[in-house]
Write a structure and sequence with these properties.
about 325 residues, alpha/beta, five-stranded parallel beta sheet, four-stranded parallel beta sheet, 12 helices, about 15% strand, elongated
Length: about 325
């Protein structure tokens, strides 16, 4: 039989309320009494009944997280930051993965709601009025990251469009005249929520329009972008930059250029976006836009907990970004 609070109270000769205060480190208890209770609880191998506590408190001290997958290193970094900040605040985390499937995402949401999580951090592939009504039906705090749903939902992120415009400005100032843009998620444009990728594309296009670039940019949306680039002639009179909407694509492009014997950045420059932590192992070091992954995760948790415990999200402005200068440009 599991040990209960009333068992510890009987042995220590105190009330169940006194045992509860000792175990949960609440005020209003003599220090010697507290030590004696904790000693008995440890000897009896007492384990709190979190289900019973959740019924009393009306919360489970758990958060749900919905991500695409963990293949992209930036998602893993985000998850680490979320888990660390949640644990600091006394919360545990459920993680669910959608594989970018809108129906899977709804299943993940319902799975987390059924387990009575206190709030959800959502990286969505759904959007639109119908989806927003669906989310509202659960009456649970939800904060969004990466893919914005609408102004109706609290969001933690950066100025994606401006960040890419600044990246283009950097490239033009370095003398690049021809541009290739690589972003396979754009194949889902108009089908699912790809807010971050759309904003980066618009920033790229708007950035080029600010300058008198002679050649139209090449925009590659296909999943087999490497096969497409294999056929590309990089020996051009124009100084060419391959701009990638995330570092993962940029690393694949760098590998291809090495295999083709293309000099980087002599013949062609490569730029990424995210500044994932493995870049320190890559040669030449990738020039990229730093996406504050850890801060996004930490801020999302703090804001969500504020909503859970104080009934209001934190006012978090869009976070800073910066261009990280490497050797690929």
């Amino acid at each position: 039989m599991p040990v209960k609070i009333k068992d510890i109270a009987r042995i220590c000769g105190v009330s169940a309320g006194t045992v509860d205060r000792a175990i949960n480190n609440r005020p209003g208890i003599n220090e010697n009494t507290k030590k004696r209770i904790l000693k008995v609880a440890k000897e009896l191998n007492y384990r709190p009944n979190y289900t019973a506590q959740s019924l009393v408190k009306g919360k489970t001290s758990t958060l749900g997280v919905i991500l695409f997958d963990l293949h992209n290193r930036s998602f893993a970094q985000l998850m680490n930051a979320i888990e660390l900040k949640a644990r600091e605040n006394g919360y545990f985390v459920y993680i669910t993965l959608t594989d970018k499937d809108p129906n899977n995402e709804k299943q993940c949401i319902e799975y987390l709601v059924e387990r009575n999580v206190d709030g959800i951090i959502l990286f969505s592939v759904n959007r639109g009025n119908e989806f927003e009504d669906y989310l509202k039906s659960f009456d649970i705090p939800i904060i969004t990251v990466f893919n914005k749903i609408s102004e109706n939902w609290d969001y933690v992120g950066i100025r994606e469009r401006q960040a890419m415009k600044d990246a283009v400005t950097h490239l033009v100032n370095k003398g690049y005249e021809r541009f290739i843009y690589v972003s396979p998620p754009l194949m889902y444009m108009g089908k699912t929520n790809i807010y971050t990728q759309e904003e980066r594309l618009y920033g790229f296009i708007e950035g080029l329009k600010s300058f008198n670039i002679q050649e139209e940019p090449i925009i590659i949306k296909e999943k087999n972008y490497i096969d497409i680039l294999k056929e590309w002639n990089f020996q051009s009179e124009y100084k060419t930059a391959v701009v990638c909407s995330c570092d993962l694509y940029a690393l694949e492009v760098l590998q291809l250029l090495k295999e083709k014997g293309v000099n980087v950045p002599g013949n062609v420059g490569v730029m990424g976006f995210d500044n994932i932590d493995v870049l320190k192992y890559v040669t030449p070091r990738l020039t990229t836009v730093e996406y504050p992954i850890e801060q996004i995760g930490s801020d999302a948790v703090e804001s969500l907990i504020s909503k859970i415990e104080h009934d209001h999200f934190l006012n978090i402005p869009l976070l800073d970004y910066k261009i990280i200068l490497g050797e690929s440009i």
